[in-house]
């Protein structure tokens, strides 16, 4: 599906939103979410506090600014499979793609900021549950599952669970002094093994 190119006004709004969100993440990473004010974010992005709230209704939205995009990528992954492929094939590719360049970077920073704030953890759990439900609904449709069949919900939960585990293990291996290439190899092996186990379970 093709998308219409953005007009000048829409493009400027999009750029402003990204600038604000990027400035917020830099401050959250440096000072912690709870110790950063919206006024500081506004100053760093060179906009007014009112402008920040025009784009982000709550402070937490600055951190989870790509929630809708993330969920859509998961839904696209459910549909990303060729005839004869397992219903998990696209989800496996989606999980692997998160770590196919390197096993650290912004995802680690995101995780550490979130770990330092009970507010973000609570909001993250709500968001995670919403993503899981959306993925489960897409899987149920793809599988032709009955309404009372828990399999799609189980698979959705397991697919999402791959990422925090991969990040946690990558961080552990990095802290142990393993080279970045070895960390990446282990993470990809871990993800593939995770999905192999799910596939075997489906086979049984």
From TrEMBL:
Q: Domain HTH tetR-type, which positions? A: 14-74
Matching Pfam families: TetR_C_14, TetR_N
Q: What is this protein called?
A: Transcriptional regulator, TetR family
Protein's UniProt keywords contain DNA-binding? yes
Q: Which domain of life is it from?
A: Bacteria
Positions of the DNA-binding region: 37-56
Among the GO molecular function terms of this UniProt record, one is: transcription cis-regulatory region binding
Provide the alphabetized UniProt keywords. DNA-binding, Transcription, Transcription regulation
């Amino acid at each position: 599906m093709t998308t219409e190119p953005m007009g000048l006004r829409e493009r400027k709004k999009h750029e402003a939103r990204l600038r604000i969100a990027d400035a917020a993440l830099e401050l959250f990473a440096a000072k912690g979410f709870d110790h950063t004010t919206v006024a500081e974010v506004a100053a760093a992005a060179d906009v007014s506090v009112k402008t920040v709230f025009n784009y982000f209704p709550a402070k937490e939205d600055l951190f989870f600014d790509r929630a809708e995009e993330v969920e859509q990528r998961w839904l696209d992954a459910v549909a990303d499979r060729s005839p004869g492929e397992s219903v998990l094939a696209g989800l496996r590719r989606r999980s692997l793609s998160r770590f196919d360049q390197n096993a650290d970077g912004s995802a680690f920073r995101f995780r550490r900021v979130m770990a330092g704030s009970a507010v973000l953890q609570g909001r993250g759990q709500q968001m995670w549950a919403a993503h899981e439900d959306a993925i489960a609904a897409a899987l149920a449709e793809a599988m032709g599952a009955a309404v009372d069949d828990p399999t799609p919900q189980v698979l959705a939960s397991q697919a999402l669970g791959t990422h925090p585990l991969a990040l946690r293990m990558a961080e552990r291996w990095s802290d142990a002094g393993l080279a970045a290439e070895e960390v990446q190899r282990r993470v990809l092996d871990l993800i593939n093994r995770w999905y192999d186990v799910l596939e075997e379970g489906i086979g049984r």
